[in-house]
Amino acid sequence: GDAYEFLISNYAANAGKSGGEFFTPQCVSKLIARLALYGQDKVNKIYDPAAGSGSLLLQAKKQFDEHIIEEGFFGQEINHTTYNLARMNMFLHNINYDKFDIALGNTLMNPQFGDDKPFDAIVSNPPYSVKWVGSDDPTLINDERFAPAGVLAPKSKADFAFILHALSYLSGKGRAAIVSFPGIFYRGGAEQKIRQYLVDNNYVDAVIALAPNLFFGTSIAVNILVLSKHKPNTQTQFIDASGLFKSATNNNILEEEHIEQILKLFADKEDVPHLAKSISFEEIAQNDYNLAVSSYVEQKDTREVINIDELNAQIRETVTNIDRLRAEIDKIVAEIEG
């Protein structure tokens, strides 16, 4: 099973963008699984609405004893080949056929597992900014997944449609961890209205900014959106983990120490300069429901502090040397011409 997953990861690395569409790097999968299952002694089942090759679901199995996930692993995948990869992946990792259910189909337009929800853990790396029907289908605004927000995700960017879908499948005690493109956290229009719905209803547990170049096929620094329906207060935590990575041959990786550091920040909920800050609901509302990490966590100033007096002294010395050299050159030229 691990060898099979290794082959898939190598394929994704070599296939570039197309490969990254169905494979989430193991280091990121590990972090997402641990965020979704954090603090839960057991979960009824785990679900991925954009399952890809199943790597996120399988990381949950690797990170936690199997008895913690009581009723198994669920996912939906639109691509037929990838759907088959996911099912094969489950078998190869010794998950019994009655403990997983991967469905084929369009999650947004033809969602499966409505009878199996809610789920205590949801993990997902949905496709970034893909087109979808959106407002061209007037029935969607009445869909129980999208109706509460009062607006549909833009037709050109389905990101928030996947997020609202995941939220509607999430249980009252559960948590969802979703890989998200940074733009959805600060753009205006319908996306801003959906952010307002999420913040006003206190669903946003944390937004975590990861390092760039962690994923195959994109160098963009993605975020993890953590959703919860049982927050103890109305604050949202912002974590800037963009500096936590190790450079590898083709891309960056999160090492175990980086994952542990992010999870500790998430667990402690303490403000740490340049790394983590919890922001009140009121402040986010005043900031037009902007959820970009950089708006709340101040970046470390890496600029060098320069002593102006020393700099001026160096400049004066340099000018004096230039004048001396110029005089010597003039003297040599005069002797040559003499």
TrEMBL record:
InterPro entries: DNA_Adenine_Mtase, DNA_methylase_A-5, DNA_methylase_N6_adenine_CS, Restrct_endonuc_T1M, SAM-dependent_MTases_sf
A Pfam family per the record: N6_Mtase
Reactions this protein catalyses: a 2'-deoxyadenosine in DNA + S-adenosyl-L-methionine = an N(6)-methyl-2'-deoxyadenosine in DNA + S-adenosyl-L-homocysteine + H(+)
An individual GO BP term: DNA restriction-modification system
Coiled coil: 308-335
Residue ranges annotated for the DNA methylase adenine-specific domain, each copy included: 1-304
Transferase among keywords: yes
Alphabetic keyword roster: Coiled coil, Methyltransferase, Restriction system, S-adenosyl-L-methionine, Transferase
Molecular function terms, GO-annotated: DNA binding; N-methyltransferase activity; site-specific DNA-methyltransferase (adenine-specific) activity
Enzyme Commission number(s) from the entry: 2.1.1.72
Signal peptide bounds: none
Entry annotated with the keyword Electron transport: no
Assigned protein family: Belongs to the N(4)/N(6)-methyltransferase family.
Cited NCBIfam families: hsdM
Name under which the protein is recorded: site-specific DNA-methyltransferase (adenine-specific)
Organism: Haemophilus influenzae R3021
